[in-house]
Amino acid sequence: MEAFLDDFGYVQVIVSKNYYNGSVSGFYLTADDGTYSDCVIRGVEEHEREVRYDLTIPAVFHFGQLYTLHESHGSEVPLKIRHIVRKPEFDRQFTYHGDDLGAIYTKDYTTFALWAPTATHVYLRLIDYQKRTVMYPMNRGEKGVFRTRVNGNLRHYLYVYLVERDGILIETIDPYALSSDANGKHSAVIDTSEIEAIPDEGVSSIMNSAADAIIYECSVRDMTSSKDTGTATHGKFVSLSEGGTSWKGKPTGLDYLSDLGITHIQLQPVMDFMSIDENHADRGYNWGYDPQQFFAMEGSYSTHPNNPYSRVLEFKKMVAALHARGMRVTLDVVFNHMYDVAKSCFDKIVPYYYFRYTDSGWMSNGSYCGNDLDSTRPMMRKLYLDVIRTYMKLYNIDGFRFDLMGILDVDTMNEIYRLARTIKPDVLIYGEGWDMPTAISENAKARIYNQHRMPGIGHFNDTFRDVAKGRTSDDSKYDKGYLTGNLGMAFDMCSVLTGNSLGDPYFRRFDSPVQSINGLETHDNATAWDKMHACCAEEPRDVRLLRQKLMIAATLVAQGIPFFHAGMEFCGTKQDNSNSYNAGDMINQMNWERMILNYDIVEYFKKMVELRKHWKAFRLSTAEQVEKHVRFSIAEGSVVLYDINYTDVGNQSAGVRVILNPSRDERHFHFEHEWQIIADQNGNPQKGSQAEIYVPPCSCIILSRSIVKMGE
Questions:
Q1: Looking at domain 91-172, does it have CATH number 2.60.40.10?
Q2: N or C terminus of the chain with fewer C-beta within 10 Å?
Q3: Is 196 among the residues known to form the active site?
Q4: Given the residues 403, 466, 492, 530, the one annotated as active site
C-alpha cells in the first residue's frame, strides 16, 4: 500500500491486489502530535494489479510532521507528500523571498539555511579538514526554511544535509552551495572574500547595442587540451588563463582568442556536471550538458578537484584573464533538466516540486533527457535568479546562453533579463528558442514564436543557418544553402541578412535584429566544413575554402549578432561527427596544426571582425533602422546586392554595398556611382574608387560610397 497527499484535503491510496485483493473498507490518519482524522472514501478505481482509492481528509494539513495512513485490515504506511507541492495554496504558504539560503560564512560563525517545507526534521552534518563529523539539528522556521548557526571558523569545512521526510532519512548536498569536493559528494563552506579579492576590472570598452557583440563559443577543455597548445596544464581553468603560448609561431589558447578580436567568449557548461569523474578527468569526456549543481563550478576543470577553493578561485582568475584581454564572458547554462532526478538534490529535498509534470501526473520530458525542470515554480525561479545574480556579482560574468530555452517559461526569462540588466546594462541574454514539447502552454514557452513577449532576449536563428549553409541535421546533410551553392535561395538570403527583422516581402521572424543570433555552426552540429564534405562533395578543396570565407563574411555583415563556434575560422573538422559530446579530445580539441594549415582563413576572419567593429552599417540595432536603411537586389546569376544606405561620418561613407557571389563564375558590374572597395575577396581594402567592380567566384566584395561634399 502507498498513500500520497496530492492536494489540500485529498489523498490517493494505491493498494495491491496481492493484499486482500485490494479491498479496504476504511482509512484513518494519525499524526506525530497524536491527532486522529477519519478519511472519507470518495472514489474507487479498480485496475488489473491494484485498486486506487480517492480519500477526502481534513483540509487543514500541518506540514513539518509525519502523518501515517491506517487501513481497516491493520496495515499502515507513511503519507507521502506528492502533488500538493504544486498547488497555489502551497506556494502561498511556503514561497520564500529571503537571501540567506545556503551556507553564509563569517570568520566567527557560519549560518546554514535550507528550504525544505515538506520535511519533518533536517540535520546538518559538518566534516572538518581532518574528516571528523559533527551533527547539528536544524530549526524549522517561516516558509519551511530550516536553519542553524555554527560558531567558529568553518572556512575549510564540508557539509551535507540529512532530510527526514515521508518517513525516511535522505542525505543530500546543498542546492545553494558555492562549491563542493570531487564529484559533488559534499558541499563546501566558502569564504567568498577570497574570490572577491581576485582583481578584475571587467572590460572597459562600451557596448552601445547588443549588435556590437561578436560571440565565439568554445569549451574550457577543448581550447587547451591539445599538447600543441603549449600550456603548462591542459583542459583546465588555469590553462585558459595562461598567456604566451604558441604553435609554430602562431598564438594558441588565451593569446589566440585575444588575437581574433571577438568581443564575447561563450563558454560551454562550467557549472558542475555529472558525466566526468573529477578525480580521473582524463578517463572520460563530456561537454557538460548534464548538470548536477548550479552554483558550484565543474571540478574536472580545476587543478585540485577535492579542494573546493581550487575550482572557484581558478575560474575567477580565468574570467579576469579574459577580461584583461578585452573579451567579455558569457556562460552556457543548462537550466532545463538535471542529469538524474533521483540523485538530484532537488528531488531529495522536496520531491515533485522542482520538476515539471503533465496534467496526468507523468514527468514532462520536453528536453528528451528524461525530465524537465519547472521554471514556473516560484522557488525554482528564485534559484535561477539567485544563480544569475551570484555569477554576475561574484565572478563578474557578462551574459548567459540558455540551453533549450524553450523548456523555460517567458516570465522567468524576462525576470532573469530584468535582474541581469540592473547589474550590467549591456548584459547579453540569449538562448535556444526551439519549440520543445514540454508540459506548459505554447504561449508560456520561451520559444522563438513568443519572441515578441521577450524583447530583450536573443534567439539562435536557425533560419539564418539553414538558408546560408543548408539544413544541418544528419538526414539533410546533402541539402545546400545559398552560400554552399543553392542559388535559388537568393531571395531567402536577403531575408536572413536582416536578422529576419524586415517584413513583407521578406520573412520577418524577430521584432528587432538584435534578437537574432546568427551562426552557421555550433558545438552540437556538424561543422560547416564537415557539412560541405556532403553537400559540396563534388567541389575541389580550394572552392570549399572560398565558401568557408564566404560564410564567415556573411555572418559578420548580417544584421543581428554574429556567432561562431571555435575552429570555424580555420575550417575546423570533427571527422564528420555531428554530435561529438562524448567523442573525446582527439575529435573535439582545437587542432592547432589545422590552424596553421588554414591560417589565411584565420587572417580573413580577423579582418572581417575588424570590419564589422569599424563600420556602423553592419550593427543596426532596431527594425526601424533596418527598414529605413537596408535594400536588396538580386543581379544576374543570383548574386545578392545588399545595400545599407547608412551615413557614417566617421568613415566618410554615404552607404555600404555588400556583393555576395556564391556561384563558381566571376561577375562584372558597372554601377552608376563610383565605389571604394573596403574589403576584397581577401578582406583587404583597395585604394581609389571605381564604377567597374569585379567579383571573383565564391566571394564577398564590400564597397563604400563616399559622402559627397558641398560644391562637388
A1: yes
A2: C
A3: no
A4: 403
